[in-house]
Amino acid sequence: MGGFLTERGTCDALMLATGQSADAGKRPDWITSLRPGMRVAVYMGVASADEIAQNLIDASLAQHIGIDIVSNAQRSNQVIVQCNATTLVETIQSNAIENPTIFFLAWPQSVAVGQVDIECQLEHAVR
User: Fold this and answer.
1) For the whole model, what pTM was predicted?
2) In terms of CB atoms within 10 Å, which end of the chain has fewer, N or C?
3) Number of domains making up the chain
4) pLDDT digits over 48-66, tens only?
């Protein structure tokens, strides 16, 4: 990744989550905890990448959240790539990424500020 897990003014919170659940039919529900200024580290998420991507797309977050994928960290076959929700599955396939892998999803504070400003402008325009 070449950066820090938290970074002032960008992401000041870190959440650790799993991509797998003990109950094979139930996926972890960490997406509802996402907030602007947060980075989420999703461990072992390759098998649920399509669902993670679709959840982000359905929540209209696909273009706001950057994803760093780190596979086989600190090993000779380490792979680090970047993508977003719309390219997550394709990126995993084209780079032959397998677990052990961590997805680092980052929702920068600056994106949220821009959205709030736009929403306020739209709200005032409607009045």
Assistant:
1) 0.81
2) C
3) 1
4) 999 999 989 988 888 899 9
